[in-house]
Amino acid sequence: xxxxxxxxxxxxxxxxxxxxxxxxxxxxxxxxxxxxxxxxxxxxxxxxxxxxxxxxxxxxxxxxxxxxxxxxxxxxxxxxxxxxxxxxxxxxxxxxxxxxxxxxxxxxxxxxxxxxxxxxxxxxxxxxxxxxxxxxxxxxxxxxxxxxxxxxxxxxxxxxxxxxxxxxxxxxxxxxxxxxxxxxxxxxxxxxxxxxxxxxxxxxxxxxxxxxxxxxxxxxxxxxxxxxxxxxxxxxxxxxxxxxxxxxxxxxxxxxxxxxxxxxxxxxxxxxxxxxxxxxxxxxxxxxxxxxxxxxxxxxxxxxxxxxxxxxxxxxxxxxxxxxxxxxxxxxxxxxxxxxxxxxxxxxxxxxxxxxxxxxxxxxxxxxxxxxxxxxxxxxxxxxxxxxxxxxxxxxxxxxxxxxxxxxxxxxxxxxxxxxxxxxxxxxxxxxxxxxxxxxxxxxxxxxxxxxxxxxxxxxxxxxxxxxxxxxxxxxxxxxxxxxxxxxxxxxxxxxxxxxxxxxxxxxxxxxxxxxxxxxxxxxxxxxxxxxxxxxxxxxxxxxxxxxxxxxxxxxxxxxxxxxxxxxxxxxxxxxxxx
Length: 579
Ligand code: HC1
Fold this sequence. Notes:
This protein has 579 residues and is α/β, with parallel strands linked by helices. It has three domains: 2-91, Ubiquitin-like (UB roll), CATH 3.10.20; 99-207, Alpha-Beta Plaits (2-Layer Sandwich); 213-572, 3-Layer(aba) Sandwich (Rossmann fold). 35% of the residues lie in helices and 13% in strands. The strands form five sheets. It has a five-stranded mixed β-sheet with strand order 2-1-5-3-4, sandwiched between helices. Strand 3 and strand 4 (60-61) form a beta hairpin. Helix 8 (269-290) crosses helix 10 and helix 8 crosses helix 15 (431-445). The longest helix is centred in the middle third of the chain and has 22 residues, at 269-290. Residues 231-233, 269, 273, 300-301, 324-326, 354-356, 359, 426-427, 507, 512-513, 516 line the site of 2 iron/2 sulfur/5 carbonyl/2 water inorganic cluster. Residues 1-79 form the 2Fe-2S ferredoxin-type domain. Residues 139-169, 182-211 form the 4Fe-4S ferredoxin-type domain. One of its GO terms (molecular function) is 4 iron, 4 sulfur cluster binding. It holds the Pfam family Fer2_4.
């Protein structure tokens, strides 16, 4: 340990502790801007966290300077305050300050810091950054470099946590820019559109594309029958925007809120998550029994699919052919649902509420028009018409003046509204695997599982592993979340080291979908954990906890699909990938 003084107060901390952390121990909150502990980002780029150290001529940055024995640190001298203020004024002087109309208005770290430091005027002027063009080349992510403060968090998360490295720091001084190498558009890079960059951006330099106007327009169109589906992760996260603790199950209120917005039917992606288990579990058993390509890789996380197509095209035969639950839902809404309700499929408009930015990309893939092909009618268009992230839905609820916490709990509509506990845990890393094991075990063995909780695949560890005996086969499974962990596994798979394994779950985002790039900001490790707990709590509380017990799934197979992997399933629920 080392002992030092902070503003005269003695404090003893383990060697290697930063001045920022040491100060926090004695109740001193040093302001920060670029620092982000969660992703290990401590480059000291912004110099807001400067402090004075006795005997040192220059200020040091508290976020990345280790405490030393006998140090005398001052965090609140006139010179320190003046330095922070000048730094902040310099950042603000060339920041595009359209705060009232900015997507991050009210939830901007730069705005909050200006308030915290009581900055009321900006004595400098510059505005050179206003010249950088906006990049709206992808369906999911919008870059607005005029709002970039060069904190470089996005670079760190993209490079270190996701190993995609689609962004880099370029140029110097007023010409400095964070963007794709070679000044390319994001759509022309290896970006997987996971949106982790948008989650860590302190301002609105990187945001989700705002598709709310498309949904308002559909809701206002009397010729449209507008249905909505809600992803597993949204059940336990939307409440955060309305002051509820992360992980609170707001399912009933979310259903009520969506009805108040005017949706004609409110359905659950959890329903098609159960369907995914039926199809993907059957696919796995088929691969095992018939000597197919193993291990099978999950296919529901669209950032992960992009990652495989970009970096491991040779391994695509391992990826399950199952579409994601979002896309299965869209295809069925415009076939099964339309048919059962006597609706014209071209009048059905499908909206998704997803924790994910990459879902916007997934929905517009050219092949995701199965309903249109099924009916032979191009007017039916995409299977999913619009994808809203959690953040966009939250904005719509605010705009509509919905008092979310005061709403009653309501139930989903019938036909595609029942989801099991197995579907709910899709939102957490390991959840798809656990859901698959609950069903695959019972189908393969014909026996009832004595214990349905597979704890080995739960939790925030980067790579998890389990072995489950099934009919004499020891089924070996792996789970990874965050693309750096996925990459570690794919390198092993490519090297032939995972031959003994049967099934691997990968979710692009740390923690799984609850940590998706479209989720409420902040999304930090603590919140990810609470949201995961929320998924398992809801799983325990539900009447059905295994996908194959979902009564609406049984009805779907009986009335429409026939059997898993059958002809209609192949038409509507399975897909292929492009190397
Ligand atoms: Fe997910 Fe999925 S779990 S991918 O994380 O398989 O986004 O929540 O909706 O499609 O069901 C996301 C979440 C989501 C799909 C399901």
